[in-house]
Amino acid sequence: MKIGTMTDPKTLVQITCDREGLRIMIQAATAAIQWSDDFNMGDEYDTDVGPYHEMKDALMAKYEEVYGEF
To answer: pTM for the full model?
Structure first.
């Protein structure tokens, strides 16, 4: 995996990885969502999992674009 800075103002970093690295990133996003769901108790201390879902969806879309079905 390679991480570098981007010149696009909307993007902070560029991550280059192989197929297995992308699969691991998707699994990590899924694990973060599950962990947050397990510890969210319905109060003001809950973790917002929306960004994790957005990241997972974006990673899965990129995987399917490059490699086909996940």
So the answer is: 0.73
